[in-house]
Amino acid sequence: MGNMKKKVEGYITVYLSLMLGIMIIVVMTVISAVRHQTVRYRAEMVMDAGLNSIFAEYNRQMLNRYGLLFIDDSYGGTGSVDYTKSHLLRYMNMNFEAGNTYGIGKDLTAMTADNAILDAVSFASDEDGTVMRYQIVRYMKTKTGLSLISDSEFNPLDIESGLGQYDMYSEQRESVEGEIDELINDYNATLAEDEDPVGISNPADAVEKLSLSGAMYYAFGDGANLSVKVADIDAYISHRGYVNGHGLYSEQESPYSLSDKLLFEQYVFDKLGYYGEIKDSSRLDYQIEYMIAGRSGDMENLEEVVEKIFRIRYAVNMAYLYTDAGKQQEAMELALAATSAIGMPELVEPVKQSILLAWGYAESAKDLRILFDGNRLGAVKTSADWNTPITQIVDFKAHLSEYHVPSSPNLAYKDFLYGFVAVKNDKDQNMKLMDIMEMDIRLTPGNAGFKMDNQIYQLSAQANISSRYGYGCSIKRGYSYR
Hints:
The protein is of the alpha+beta class. The chain folds into 2 domains: about 1-140 and about 445-480, no CATH class; about 155-230 and about 285-410, no CATH class. It has 15 helices and 4 strands. The chain has helices spanning about 1-55, 60-65, 80-100, 125-145, 145-150, 160-190, 205-210, 215-220, 260-270, 285-295, 300-320, 325-340, 350-370, 415-420, 425-440, and strands spanning about 70, 110-125, 455-465, 470-480. The longest helix is centred in the N-terminal third of the chain and has 54 residues, at about 1-55. It is rod-shaped, with a radius of gyration of 38 Å. About 35% of the residues are buried.
């Protein structure tokens, strides 16, 4: 019996030894699998936390002033995606270190983010500012919704047509003036040597000798308090080379539909200043005018806009004059009076045309004064709205402030600006807006080197993570300000 008992005890010992070894293997395998999954799970969480951290480092001034979110990869210095990558690794390793010990002094995962790659990086300036515009459109849809756009009564002015008609009337003025000179010269060539050459006192001559250089005087007179700010535009993105990134991702819609364009233009007028509505702390006061003209100084930009408005009003006024029989008759009577003394009936019609063209010019000058006195103009001219008597053609500049406001005023200065911005091509709109953003953000503390091509909107990040226990993984994530 004693030997039998010893045999049984020996069997049990062997059995338990075998089972214990198997159990240890199973437990260690489970622990290894759990540790491996824990490493993977923690890596994903820490990667997300790190990306959230770098996307939380958006440029505060861009958000405060323009409502836009971008990572500024210059961080107040020289821009580089490598800086953003180093920030990501630092935040990840800080999170790993914060959770690696559990009070028993044992590091259960011992994880480290070894390196990272940032690719598919989209900068605000990509695709000629399309990435910036994409965020602007999304911002405006969130802020206003599309209902304001669909209900809008705003129709851009037919700018290109108006400017083209001005050129046509200018050529007509030159042609008529040349015809008058030719007829008089031909007549004088037939006179005897002892006869004095003839000439006419054409009321239109006072206007024909003028050019658009007087448009600013017509608008403001001598006492205007206008901005003389200037900017070194060669330092801004539309005049220098810049970094190109990935651009929009394939699933992101192009921000250039008709409703998107209207939202973008509304954003421009919400965020930028212009004559009569100046924004504080701006490099240039007339920012909308800069978007239209692109000159270095406020005065130059405003002058070009004023001249454009003059051209459009001249086309409007001439279109009216050629349909008003009463004013046609007034011009004919004045032409007859001017030519009757020399007995050249062939001069009557060209002189009449020159008077009409000069009359339209004088009325357009008065339209500028009306508009820049803070009033509105009618989209079309009517008899009741005509402000310049034919007798004022010769000295119209002395009567610019003698007017009545049109009976149906519907065009303010801002409406003209809307029209001028609307006809600019999309790339030019984007680039000029980014110029203005660079101008103004550089005025804020710590942003002297601010550039739009350092502003990250979205990226793809891959981090390689290792553990002292021999485990490792690679995590890839795409993040964006959506």
